[in-house]
Amino acid sequence: MKTTNNHIQYLGSSPLDEKWGLTVTTVGYQRIPAHSTYPSVTQHPQGYVFNPQKGRTLSEYQLVYISEGSGYFESASCKRQKIKAGTMLLIFPDEWHTYYPEENGWYEHWVGFKGNMIENWIANKFFLKEKPVFEIGISSNIIGLYEDMDAYASKEDAGYQQLISSIVLYLMGEIYFKVKNSAFKESTTVRKINEAKALMKRNISNSISAEDIARQLNVSYSWLRSRFKAYTGISPTQYHLNLRYIKAKEMLCTTQMSISDIAFALNFETVSQFSSFFAKKEGISPSTFKKKYHLDPNPSHKPEEE
């Protein structure tokens, strides 16, 4: 059980920190006891002052994690909803929002951040203003990460911004991972997708189509394609091609096989087809890749002439 009621830090960053792609602006935590004022009476810099009745708009992103208690959240793009312990809130910049605990209070942790990295995630719709609430569960690991950020920020050792912003990166990845997998609670779906992956891995060098895999799994091709792509981000056909590409790199690096032998071993119809496929993936031809990265198991080390 934590004994400190609150700890709030506002952080600066240098031009070098900002080149990292993500900088942390604030980090902290606070316990709101039952039947008490929210937020607690604390002096905040201009732009952070919070009135739950009026709400506020920030100039940065924030991840707010509720580890105890329950309350409510609302934003311009998300209707008012009840939140409970184990909930993560992603606050967007220039987005009106408000949140507050019920009468029994709560324990909240937060980190504010900004940078090109998060802007890229938002531009590519990894996270949406319309879906800023994530039920990721109560996790001592996540609480520990917030505490680590707070501790590193307090010391301000050289490179601390890069370290704590990397923890933010992990937290965002953790959220995305949990959200993606929560959409596939049906064990049959995940099992079928894993079986499809296993079939493709066993048939890297064979001509097996997505239609063949669907038949072997007793599902329709359309079902397999849609569910597989929703789960992995790519179609079954593209997944199988990626396996062949990875195998081709391995063979080019570790075997004495010719380019044509590798092409036919991986079931490409022609060497030209293989070369075009590989060059599109890697950016260089198979022969150039082989010359550059082949690992000779018996290298000759001739002494240099004096």
TrEMBL record:
<dbReference type="InterPro" id="IPR018060">
    <property type="entry name" value="HTH_AraC"/>
</dbReference>
<protein>
    <submittedName>
        <fullName>AraC family transcriptional regulator</fullName>
    </submittedName>
</protein>
<dbReference type="InterPro" id="IPR037923">
    <property type="entry name" value="HTH-like"/>
</dbReference>
<dbReference type="Pfam" id="PF02311">
    <property type="entry name" value="AraC_binding"/>
</dbReference>
<feature type="domain" description="HTH araC/xylS-type">
    <location>
        <begin position="194"/>
        <end position="292"/>
    </location>
</feature>
<dbReference type="InterPro" id="IPR009057">
    <property type="entry name" value="Homeodomain-like_sf"/>
</dbReference>
<dbReference type="Pfam" id="PF12833">
    <property type="entry name" value="HTH_18"/>
</dbReference>
<keyword id="KW-0238">DNA-binding</keyword>
<dbReference type="InterPro" id="IPR003313">
    <property type="entry name" value="AraC-bd"/>
</dbReference>
<keyword id="KW-0805">Transcription regulation</keyword>
<keyword id="KW-0804">Transcription</keyword>
